[in-house]
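Hi there,

I know you've been waiting on this one. I reran it after we fixed the sequence typo, so this is the corrected version. Both the input and the resulting structure follow.
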Amino acid sequence: MLFPNVSGANLEGRKFNLPKDFEGELNIIFVPFQQWQQGWVNQWLQFANALVKKYPGVRAYELPTLSRMGAIQQWWIDQGMRMGIPDRAVRESTITLYLDKAGFRKALNMPSEGTIYILLVKRNGEIVWRSEGQFSEAKGRELATAIAGEVVL
């Protein structure tokens, strides 16, 4: 499965065309659909940040995924998120997607917006591992194993 071509901007205003603008050889992608899911993303990010430090070619991104809306509404939402995140590095790795959520979910086989999805995506867009929901030690081990199996030393 390939990550679909989508566009967005990070919370610092930089535009991205994904997957080609992912900066890692391997990219850990978190896809939340609802604000309450941020707690789950944060659980995963703590673990993912350790993997990013361990493997130089790995990056992590959060892709809050929202329906298309007007530019003023997008600005308002992005400004609210920006103000709530004091860490510039986190703002740089948070890329908001405003798109056709149903089409995006279908392309990635994501049947529900009631959970978060975690993807390991190569630079070319190939998805080599996936999970969903809250972090667990078992899921973390699976992700770490998938990364270790893809890393070329």
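Quick highlight: The helical segments are 38-54, 71-84, 88-92, 101-107, 137-150.

Best,
R. S.
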